[in-house]
């Protein structure tokens, strides 16, 4: 009886292990415990005082940032990647993601610029190189989105070679219908799920009439990053402090595990309060109510 029980246990354990291998990796994704800030929120302040701004971001309760605007000429607001990484470390910050242009790849097929961005993102310790925007001329048809998806797969291969992952950040135009589909659905279906992740901007998704939870359920595990950006109650075209607008974040965050959420990144594109007061208020709400 004892031997049979042991055999049964071993058999069941083996079956469970085999099942675990078949389950998508998002099942084991750890929900974020800290909040990040997309530095685009402070685009007006950064160029004049990058060190002071980063210090204030850390003081506001953030532990992560997402970069934007890196260029071969100006680097990270005048700091080379190592100097910028050291500045982040000094303020208790990491940069798991950054927004980098893919204009050269999309227009000419050349990869020199992208390789430079990959090198910079790797140097500051990022996990994701995120595509922030698609210029309007590139996205005039469903076929255009298929071509974009192919380019994203190509970029993802280059990222993988350097230990990075590629992600795509949306606005609202991706949800425009093309026949019985949308640009966003095409990107999700035509990109390699093992190589290309998605950073869902919750504000733009909701503003375009979509339910984030339905997107997560339809494409589980593909949304490791979210932009947590609230919608003003009086004017849906502007942002407000997280928790004071119209977006039901508490319901959306119930789908965090299905989405595969790893990084919750606050972004606010306009302010009615002092920006540093505003970003702290949003950070406090996200940490207390959502994470």
TrEMBL record:
<dbReference type="Pfam" id="PF01261">
    <property type="entry name" value="AP_endonuc_2"/>
</dbReference>
<protein>
    <submittedName>
        <fullName>Secreted protein</fullName>
    </submittedName>
</protein>
<keyword id="KW-0732">Signal</keyword>
<dbReference type="InterPro" id="IPR006311">
    <property type="entry name" value="TAT_signal"/>
</dbReference>
<dbReference type="InterPro" id="IPR013022">
    <property type="entry name" value="Xyl_isomerase-like_TIM-brl"/>
</dbReference>
<dbReference type="InterPro" id="IPR050312">
    <property type="entry name" value="IolE/XylAMocC-like"/>
</dbReference>
<feature type="signal peptide">
    <location>
        <begin position="1"/>
        <end position="29"/>
    </location>
</feature>
<dbReference type="InterPro" id="IPR036237">
    <property type="entry name" value="Xyl_isomerase-like_sf"/>
</dbReference>
<feature type="domain" description="Xylose isomerase-like TIM barrel">
    <location>
        <begin position="55"/>
        <end position="288"/>
    </location>
</feature>
<dbReference type="InterPro" id="IPR019546">
    <property type="entry name" value="TAT_signal_bac_arc"/>
</dbReference>
